[in-house]
Every structure is written in structure tokens, then in C-alpha cells.
Amino acid sequence: MDALIKKSWHALASVRLTLVCMTCLCVCAGIGYFLIRSQVHVFKPLQDLSLISWAKTWGLAHLSVTWWFFLLLGLLALLCLNTFVCTTDRVNAIWRNRKRFPGRTSLVLRLSPHIMHYALIMILAGYLTSYVFANTVTSLILLPDRPTRVENTSITITLTDLQTQTYHGKRMGPFDGRAIKAAASLFFEDSKGRTKTAQAGVNRPVRFQGLSVHMTEFAPRSEGGMVRRKYAGLTVRQDPGIPIYYAGMALFVLGLIFYVFSITPWGERHMRGSYA
């Protein structure tokens, strides 16, 4: 049994496996590009559904179009496993020989590329967590001063104000008198009494207690004519993957700083143990 585990471990650490995975990923992604363009409606629900929900419905129902996507996920998982095993082997080797390094700084600098490899795995794990476990509520309509509860949560959101910026000019005639920018003032509150006041825009989401709130529509959009009541349409996403890939990004930046330092003359002297 131990021999089988060791053999499997060495197979997963193969550089040849890395090259095969990356080549297959490129081919698979290329095929997927053309299939997505030809069948956009099959993949568009991924914006609103979790990966599992989409796979059970659209994915399995259109397998002739989606097969490459499932293969892509498998190849990514295999590449992550390959990266983890290769990196762990190198880290173990460095750690076993740590007494040969002139100091802790030299040891950390030697580990810097491997820190970035672990960080990339964390980032991919964060994105996978988002696709699998994220809960998305689309078309949450808020009217002024009416608290609205977010589905499957104890959080309420209230639209306290909606400010719009209207375009006036002849350069873009069709947009004259129309709102080109909007900011919704939102008040958040959960069951424990925690609150937050923030402004959400079309390209400026707001975060509260694990929720990511995006404004997708609003009214009124133009001056004059029929007076429409103010409202803001939101897409609310509860995404447990965000902390994971933020942590991965922070770890990657840390590893990158160490790596850049290691290739400077000062860093090279630290690596050799010469500080003169």
C-alpha cells in the first residue's frame, strides 16, 4: 500500500504531467470558446446559478455543447493537484536542508516561488468555492424607505436615496436628458443589530456580512415625460469564496515581494550568506 501511495505521489509530481495538462487545457479552452459563441444561452445561466445547479440542469441537458467545460474542470483539478505535489516535494527538500542556509532570510527567499504556487492553488480554490456554494438573488427590487429582506438570510436592505446624474448636451443627442450615472444609498441591518450605510453604483458593489450587492437597474432614467417612481434593482450574491481568494492574492503578493527581493544583488548576498 505504501509503495502504491509513493508511486502515485511521484506520478502526480511529474513535469510531463504538467505539460500534458497545460496543453490539454489550452486545446479544451479553445474548443470551448467556439462552443460558447455558438450556444451563449446554455452558459449564460452560470451568472445566476451555482455550478452544481447549472450542471444538473443546463450542463447535463446540453452535454454535446458543455462536455468541454466538465473536462476543463477535471484538468484544472489535476493541474492543481500536480502543482501541490510538486511544490510540496520542493518545500520538503528545502526544509530538510534548512540548516545549510546561512539564515532565516535566506530560507524564506528560497521558499518564495513555492509560496506563490500555494497561493495560486488557494485562488483557484476560492473561485471553485464561489461557483459551487455561492447563493445569488437576482432582481431584488427596492422601493424608497421600504426594508426588503434578502432571500435565505436575516439581512434587510433599505433604499434611503437614489441620486442620478443626467446628461445635457448635443454631442450625444439620444442621451440628452437621460440618466447616465446613478448611486443608491443603502442601509443594511442584520438580525443581530449590525448596520451599515453605503452607496452602490452600477460598477461599484457594496459588501456587508458576506454579501456582495450590485446595482443592475434603476428608475427614473430620464427627465420629463411620465413620472416613474424611484426604485433600484439589485443582484445580491452571498459568496463564501471571496475570503479564500483574497487570502490567496495576499499570499501571492507576499511571495512575489520575497521573490523580487531574492533576485536583487542584496537578496543574492543573503542567499549566499555574504553581507559585505
Automatic annotation (TrEMBL):
Query: Which keywords accompany this UniProt record?
Result: Membrane, Transmembrane, Transmembrane helix
Write out the coiled-coil annotation as residue ranges. Answer: none
Keyword Membrane part of the UniProt annotation: yes
Q: Which residues cross the membrane?
A: 12-36, 67-86, 107-134, 244-262
Q: What's the protein name?
A: ResB-like domain-containing protein
Give the lineage.
Answer: Bacteria, Pseudomonadati, Thermodesulfobacteriota, Desulfobacteria, Desulfobacterales
